[in-house]
Design goal:
With 198 residues, this protein is α+β, with helices and mostly antiparallel strands. It has 3 helices and 9 strands; from the N terminus they run αβββββββββαα. The protein folds into 2 domains: 2-21 and 159-192; 44-151, Immunoglobulin-like, CATH 2.60.40. The protein has helices spanning 2-23, 159-179, 181-192, and strands at residues 38-42, 45-52, 65-66, 73-79, 88-96, 100-109, 114-119, 127-136, 142-151. The chain has a 5-stranded mixed beta sheet, with no helix packed on it. Strands 1-2-4-7 form a 4-stranded antiparallel beta sheet, with no helix packed on it. Residues 21-33 have low confidence and may be disordered.
Length: 198
Amino acid sequence: MKNVYLLRQSFLVLLGLIFSSVIWAHGGAKGTDTDQCKFELEKSHWLHYTAYQPKAYPAKEFCGNLPDINTPTQLVFDYQDQRYKGMAIEFEVTKEPEGKLIYLLKSDKHKSGTVVLDLPNGVEESGKYLIHITLLQDSGERLDAHMNFRAGGGQPASKGKIGLYILVLIALIYAAYLSNTGLKRKIDQCLSKEKPIY
C-alpha cells in the first residue's frame, strides 16, 4: 500500500512540474523581466519582438527561430516604452554573415507603438539573420540595438510540448490503472510484493 501512495504522490509532483514549466515558458515573471523576445534599446527601455508565418503556421508566435523560408513572414515590434512613439526608429534585416540587406524600413515615427515588418516572401535562405534597430534621437545621436534569428530549420517540438505529451501518456496509464480493477489488482500485487531477504 505504501508503494501505491508513493506512486500517486510521484504522479502529482510530476504533474505540478510539467504544468509549472508550461506556465513559465514565456517569461513567468510579472511584466517581461525574463522574456527572451525582448531587447533593450536603451538602458531599461525595451522593445518586444514577435515573428509570425501566418500561412504556414497560423496563430503561432516565434522569436529566435523561424521554421520556414519562402513563406510570408511578419516581424512585429511593440514599444514597451511609450516615449518611443515620438521618436524616429529605423529597422533593417540582414542575412549574416554576409550582411546582405533583406529588408529596410526607413526611419519614421510610429505613433501606434507597434511596427510590422511585412516580408511577403519571407526570407529566401536558411541560416542566421540580424535585425538592426536604430533609434534617432532629437539630439542627432543614434542608438543601435541588434537581435538575431535563424530561419529554415523546421519547427522542432518544444520541450513544453514533449512534457505535455509525456503527461498525457502518464495520465492515460493512470486512468487505466484506476478504471480497470484487474489491472489495478495486478499492479498493486507487483508493487506490494516484498523482496526476499538474504
